[in-house]
Automatic annotation (TrEMBL):
Metal-binding is among the record's keywords: no
Molecular function, one GO term: sequence-specific DNA binding
One matching Pfam family: HTH_18
Stated name of the protein: HTH araC/xylS-type domain-containing protein
InterPro entries: AraC_XylS_family_regulators, Homeodomain-like_sf, HTH_AraC
Keywords linked to the UniProt accession: DNA-binding, Transcription, Transcription regulation
């Protein structure tokens, strides 16, 4: 299984892709796409953002105001983007722990750090997004790091 790489190139790729895709469109559309990228970056970099309401508040917009441009420009809801970044963070925590060998705090601690109500909620999201349980992912990551 491939490791999840640094997320900065993904954000840059998203930005470049959106900008090139809409370069021939009107300036308002370009500005809207750039705003979506900026809001998505908030979800990526601010671990306290766990819900769409928090993202909307940080962006100075209503939930519905975020939903329309995300659906149009990203093809996914803001809640999907938030969940995806949280899962990437969880997977990265597992990878870092397997790299240094002694930094593993456990899935319950990771779930709490990322704003999940409990470990089971993290496990469901993890399985939905990565197709495997967190424990299996950690075991594979640890084996690959050996």
């Amino acid at each position: 299984m491939a490791k999840i790489d640094d997320t900065e190139p993904r954000t840059d790729a998203l930005r470049e892709g959106l900008e090139s895709l809409i370069a021939c469109r009107d300036p308002a559309m370009i500005a809207e796409a750039q705003e979506v990228v900026a809001v998505a970056a908030l979800a990526e970099h601010d671990r306290s953002v766990c819900r769409v309401e928090q993202l909307a508040s940080a962006a100075g917009a209503s939930v519905r105001t975020l939903q329309r441009p995300f659906d149009f420009h990203v093809g996914a809801s803001p809640s999907f983007v938030i969940r995806r970044w949280r899962i990437i963070e969880a997977a990265e925590a597992a990878r870092r722990a397997s790299d240094d060998g002694n930094g593993w705090r456990g899935w319950a601690a990771i779930a709490a750090e990322l704003g999940y109500s409990d470990q089971a909620h993290l496990t469901r999201d993890f399985r939905r997004h990565l197709g495997t349980s967190p424990s299996v992912y950690l075991a594979r990551t640890t084996r690959q790091g050996s």
